[in-house]
Amino acid sequence: MNIKHRNNNRCKFFKQGICAVLFILAINGCKKDNQIVKTPDAGSGSTIDFVLNDNFSLNVVYAGLQYAGLIDTLAKPGPYTFLASDNNAFLMEGVTQYGFYYFGSVGRVQNIMRYCILNGNISFKSLPLVQNKPFLTHGGGNVYVTKYLNGSDTIVTVNGLILSSIDNRASNGLIQVLPQVMNPEIYQKLVDHIHNDTTLTMFSAALQRCKLDVSLLSGSDEYTLLAPSNTAFYKSGQLGKDLGISTLDSILTADPVKLTAFLKYHIIKGRYFEGDLYRNMQADPTGIVMLDGGKVVIGGYPSGFHAITFLGSGNNGIPSQIPTPVFYDGTINYADIPCGNGVIHIINQVLIP
């Protein structure tokens, strides 16, 4: 599918906001034509910012760069590699070309956009087969690129997301197109994110009770956390098992040995984004091995938006999922939260070994 070029008159209509109908039609057009970016001839002087603005399916990320005050960066000589989430990716978050005011603070949008800018011409087509290779971003954190074979196809992912379009040329670098918006890597250590995320207060307290926050999650070894939300802990008493973790007081007085075994059933050795977990599901449908030695069965739909599920052995066939907010909040994205030493997926139900 081809991304359509804007003509000058339509560009004026968009920028001036004269005709809402044309805006709706343009968004619909983006859904149909979002695979191959129209790029300039070599030496044309068309920088990354120009190419983004000149393609229908990328005008939301262009607007985000403007809102964040970063569009001029991509007009400089560089070279840069820009990871551009397409319009459909932002629509999943409820954001259109004119909706960044509602998406979050300028600071949050700046974090997201800086996380998508890398120095250098990084050709993903030219990379060897790699697994979550880190690349430093302008935001200070890393993105993680994987390249693997799937039958006769070569697949490239960034933070577990399969790229929609690869190595699109501009005069000052390359554009790689993503199907979803990435969470930026803010913290170097998993423990720092957990202690600063108010959604994970109960999980944080449980880790501290067992001292796993220091002994396990503060080091350089990589782990993936299936982290139950506060609500998941509150509702744990309704699962038909006497887990004794449904209140903060009960967590603070829990048997550390039993609590450690319970928590390790929520931890995977290594870095696994959603895409990596789905690949594991295909390779071993019986489940992925957790840190306690037990298995959690991965399910769901790879083509869905955070449609992955996790089924514990003692959960009576009722899987955990990635929670979605009751009311729209563009600042919330509970899956694929990268940290320097791992990944966090927040889940809506505790896993029972």
From TrEMBL:
Gene3D superfamilies to which the protein is assigned, alphabetical: FAS1 domain (2.30.180.10)
Residue stretches making up the FAS1 domain: 45-182, 187-351
Gene Ontology terms: cellular component: extracellular space
Listed SMART domains: FAS1
InterPro entries per the UniProt record, alphabetical: Adhesion/Biosynth-related, FAS1_dom_sf, FAS1_domain
Domain of life: Bacteria
One of the Pfam families matching this protein, by short name: Fasciclin
PANTHER family assigned to the protein according to its UniProt record, in alphabetical order: FI19380P1, PERIOSTIN-RELATED
Protein name: Uncaracterized surface protein containing fasciclin (FAS1) repeats
Source organism of the structure: Mucilaginibacter mallensis
Lineage: Bacteria, Pseudomonadati, Bacteroidota, Sphingobacteriia, Sphingobacteriales
